[in-house]
Amino acid sequence: MTYYTPDNPNHALLPRPRKHPVREGIRITLVILLSLLLVLSLTLTLFSAAVRNAITPEYVYRYVDSIDFTEFPLPVDGSFTTISQLMLETFNAAGFNLQASDIALLFDQFSVPVVFAGFAQDVTAWFLQNGTRPVLDPEEIASIALSGVDDSIMAILYFLGDPTAILSKILVTPLSTIDTDSLFDRLEPVRLLLSADALAMLVSISLLLGILLFCLCRCRFSEFCLPLFIVLLFVSLSVGLSGFSVTAMIPHFSEVYAGYLASFLQPVCILLWRFALSGVIIALIPASIWFFCLLSRRLNQRKVWTGTDVYPL
């Protein structure tokens, strides 16, 4: 039996039968469900990609180099203290009477920024590159701190014994009071979400959902363009809002480190906003194709009903 088609608009042919309402309702419901899942998976994929591309070892080193560590807070016994105060208490307990004015000289002599830069690199490797959980090792810190001390001072220290062993014993007590495990425990779920394996899984899920959505659209690109446009539009909106929400949620995560985290995550927010803008621009492509196909279909139907371009029997 021959049915009416726009390519063969003959009034004598039978009209195409209507679609089954139940099956069409199920198909539309599945299209909406898959579109929502695709929006979620693509949003998580772009967020993870933004973090992994923005937070590089080079960026971490540059950011750590710009921090004033004399007033950097450290978690100690349920509260926070600055590094300068911790160093004063440590050296005074060891018998060295120091003043606050001596802290800047100690920072330069004992390479404190280098120590924190190395620890920040270890944290980044653990957080994004599946490295081991960083630990504040007194011997490692002592060896790094003494690597920048003048040879004349080192010669004096050798009269007292092994400088590395002496400094590591001094650092054991203050380092043991620094509670980094609680912070790392809170970051563990975020670390798993931003891991490379999770990113690969999200990309695979997004591709699978896209293929299923295309199949539900009868494998026709003209029908697939409308849900694709809506998905890209909502993904762009979600990614753009996540760039703003990251900064807004930081104080709820840690009020003490809110300023440091906000400046540290600024490149991530900028990259998310770029992804959002790119998504809006890309979404215009399927929207234009869908609108062109719809307009072309309407024009063909109009030709049929007005009697123009009618093919003979």
Can you put this structure into words, describing what you see?
Strands 1-2 form a two-stranded antiparallel sheet. The protein is mainly alpha-helical. Strand 1 and strand 2 form a beta hairpin. Helix 1 runs antiparallel to helix 13, helix 2 runs antiparallel to helix 5 and helix 11 packs antiparallel against helix 12. It is 72% helix and 3% strand. The protein is elongated. It is built from 13 helices and two strands.
Task: Give the gist of this structure.
This protein has 13 helices and two strands.
Spell out the key features of this protein.
mainly alpha; 313 residues; 2 strands
Residue fraction in strands: under 5%
What Rg do the Cα atoms give? Answer: 31 Å
Element pattern in H and E: HHEEHHHHHHHHHHH
Tell me the distance between the termini.
Answer: 14 Å
Helix share bin: over 70%
Task: Look at the structure and give the mean pLDDT.
Answer: 79
Globular, elongated, flat, extended or rod-shaped: what is the shape? elongated
Q: Uncertain spans, ≥5 residues at pLDDT below 50? A: 308-313
Tell me how many strands there are: 2
Q: How many helices does DSSP assign?
A: 13
Side-by-side strand order of the widest sheet: 1-2
